[in-house]
Design brief:
By secondary structure, this protein is an alpha/beta fold. Among the domains are: 147 residues, 3-Layer(aba) Sandwich (Rossmann fold), CATH 3.40.50; 32 residues. Helix content is 66%, strand content 8%. It has a five-stranded parallel β-sheet, with helices on both faces. α4 runs parallel beside α5 and α6 packs antiparallel against α7. It starts with a strand and ends with a helix. The chain binds adenosine monophosphate. The site of adenosine monophosphate (AMP) has 17 residues, from α2 and α3.
Length: 294
């Protein structure tokens, strides 16, 4: 994961960057920390940056870009990084784009911590007072006068970066005035798969694959069913001629009624009796004719 945290001095970039380091196993690349280390070590870069930093101004772009170019090539940055305090100008952002493109890398997002400058000044004054009370060393540029200069440099040179990344569709803003944990939670939401949009794409692809698999199973079941039916299919029987009764039923009226009666009589076992009776009647008629002749 490769991220940029944008925001004026004292917005809480350092605090949130450290939490991202722990959560995502990436490294924090703070140009301010690197420059302070260079100043402390008395390196040529440090000697060049020292007075600029003390005034609260920005160190030249080529100096910080060179520092970052070296740093992202180090082994611990391979898993990802969160840039804190860099880029600070549009030319630095463009240089970063080139550095990443040359290495085949991409940024995952730019998070801007939005803050109220008036409250920010009070926040830093309180932080300085607390550190002094604890006997801790206070940064030379963390005094109200220098801070005003740093805020002015931010407004003039760094704030345009929000538009730069917004135009690329990469900028996500967070309320930096919220309690620290709330800011962390807001950043987590942005970085969650759903927040980056990757989740939506993944979920869409998953749903599509599921629907495709379902359709495939359905088609396979249908084909198997047809094959089975074809194997077990009985030879088609010739159509039986329609029964007389049904023919009769086709003609409603007396004939139907008499057929029904006949059928009912048959069901009750009277048909045989009638036949007998009929033949009996015939016999009787013959007997009558014979008797007459006699
Ligand atoms: P920071 O700790 O990020 O507030 O930075 C402290 C000081 O270091 C700034 O006021 C600048 O003088 C210098 N600095 C840090 N990062 C940059 C940068 N990306 N470009 C120019 N100057 C920087």
């Amino acid at each position: 994961m490769r991220l940029i945290l944008l925001g004026p001095p004292g917005a809480g970039k350092g605090t949130q960057a450290q939490r991202l380091v722990v959560k995502h196993g990436i490294v924090q690349l703070s140009t301010g920390d690197m420059l302070r280390a260079a100043v402390a070590a008395g390196t040529p870069v440090g000697l060049r940056a020292k007075s600029i930093m003390e005034r609260g101004e920005l160190v030249p772009d080529d100096v910080v870009v060179a520092i970052i170019a070296d740093r992202i090539d180090q082994a611990d940055a391979k898993r990802g990084f969160v840039l804190d305090g860099f880029p600070r100008t549009v030319p630095q952002a463009e240089a970063l784009d080139r550095l990443l493109a040359q290495r085949g890398l991409k940024l995952d997002g730019v998070i801007e911590l939005k803050v109220d400058e008036g409250i920010l000044l009070k926040r830093i004054e309180t932080r300085v007072a607390d550190m002094t009370a604890r006997g801790e060393k206070v940064r030379a540029d963390d005094n109200p006068d220098v801070l005003k200069g740093r805020l002015a440099a931010y407004r003039a040179q760094t704030a345009p970066l929000a538009a730069y990344y917004a135009s690329k569709g990469m900028l996500k803003a967070v309320d930096g005035m919220a309690p620290i944990d709330d800011v962390t939670a807001a950043i987590d939401r942005i970085l969650s798969p759903a927040g980056t949009g990757k989740g939506k794409t993944k979920a869409k692809a998953k749903a599509k694959a599921k629907a495709k698999a379902k359709a495939k199973t359905k088609a396979a079941t249908r084909t198997a069913g047809r094959r089975k039916a074809a194997k077990t299919k009985k030879p088609v029987k010739a159509k039986k001629p329609a029964k007389r009764a049904s023919k009769v039923r086709a003609k409603p009226g007396r004939a139907e009624t008499s057929t029904r009666r006949a059928a009912a009589a048959g069901a009750k076992g009277r048909t045989a009796g009638r036949t007998v009776k009929k033949s009996g009647q015939r016999k009787t008629a013959t007997k009558r004719r014979l008797t007459k002749a006699r």
